[in-house]
């Protein structure tokens, strides 16, 4: 089973003007056992799935669906999976399978379990042992 660890860094960010307050910000990075690391857009299902599948050969591709319209999909060879965002839900649609889930989870174990279910069932990728890194 491939392994990965996620580290986070918290810091204060200025709003950019005198009237703006300082804000807390947190970044997340996933570190794979082959020493490659990728910054996550967010700590959620879509960011983790996208990062892991791209590491495993899938590519984000824009497919024209109309005049001036595109559909963003994940593609590997002839396999195409379309992520659709519905509020706080995300739907992954393949030819004959569909998984709908929340984008975020309060518990990291639930988040990692959901990511692995999507990886295995739709992308045919071996599940990852994902842990939070401890500084």
Structure description:
This protein is α+β, with helices and mostly antiparallel strands and 135 residues long. It is built from two helices and nine strands; from the N terminus they run E-E-E-H-E-E-E-E-E-H-E. It has helices spanning 45-55, 108-123; strands at residues 3-13, 23-32, 37-40, 59-66, 69-76, 79-86, 89-93, 98-102, 129-132. The strands form two sheets. The chain has a five-stranded antiparallel beta sheet with strand order 4-5-6-7-8, covered by helices on one side. A four-stranded mixed beta sheet has the order 3-2-1-9. Strand 7 (89-93) and strand 8 form a beta hairpin. It is globular. It starts with a strand and ends with a strand.
**Beta-strand percent range:** over 45%
Mean pLDDT: 93
* Proportion of residues in helical segments: 10-25%
Topology pattern, helix = H, strand = E: EEEHEEEEEHE
| Sheet of most strands | 5 strands, antiparallel
Radius of gyration: 17 Å
* SS-derived structural category: alpha+beta
Number of helices in the DSSP assignment: 2
Shape: globular
Number of strands: 9
Poorly predicted segments: none
Strand order of the largest sheet: 4-5-6-7-8
User: Could you tell me how far the N terminus lies from the C terminus, measured between alpha carbons in angstroms?
Assistant: 23 Å
Index terms:
alpha+beta, 2 helices, 20% helix, 4-stranded mixed sheet
Summarize the structure.
The chain is an alpha+beta fold and 135 residues long. Helices cover 20% and strands 47% of the residues. The model has no long low-confidence stretch (mean pLDDT 93).
